[in-house]
Write a structure and sequence with these properties.
The chain has 116 residues and is mainly beta. The protein is 0% helix and 57% strand. The protein has no helices and eleven strands. A hairpin with a 2-residue loop joins strand 9 and strand 10.
């Protein structure tokens, strides 16, 4: 059974940092591209970042230079380092497995709230 479990969310002041983790199991993690997606009531779903199986990384423009995606294949864990956080980064953050036709498995999410 494929499982993706996010953690690391919380309440942070603007300008602060967080590290999100996503523990993956039930599939060959190292062979799969992985993605972070976030959702807010106002903006809906937003693709944030993706890391390919070969380690190539991609980011949406609004987080470039502030967020860093990484993976530890030995631990089966995906990470997202969030720096210089803004109130607009407030969202539920989900990790998902990227398949050929889209994101086929999702975690339940971890809430990030940026507020002073």
């Amino acid at each position: 059974e494929v499982q993706l479990v996010e953690s690391g969310g919380g309440l942070v002041q603007p300008g602060g940092s967080l590290i999100l983790s996503c523990a993956a199991s039930g599939f060959p993690f190292s062979n799969n591209d992985m993605t972070w997606v976030r959702q807010t009531p106002g903006k809906g779903l937003e693709w944030v970042s993706q890391i390919a199986a070969d380690g190539a990384t991609y980011y949406t423009d609004s987080v470039k230079g502030r967020f860093t995606i990484s993976r530890d294949n030995a631990k089966g864990t995906l990470y997202l380092q969030l720096n210089a956080l803004k109130t607009d980064d407030t969202a539920m953050y989900y990790c998902a497995r990227a398949a050929l036709l889209g994101l086929d498995y999702w975690g339940k999410g971890t809430l990030v709230t940026i507020s002073s």
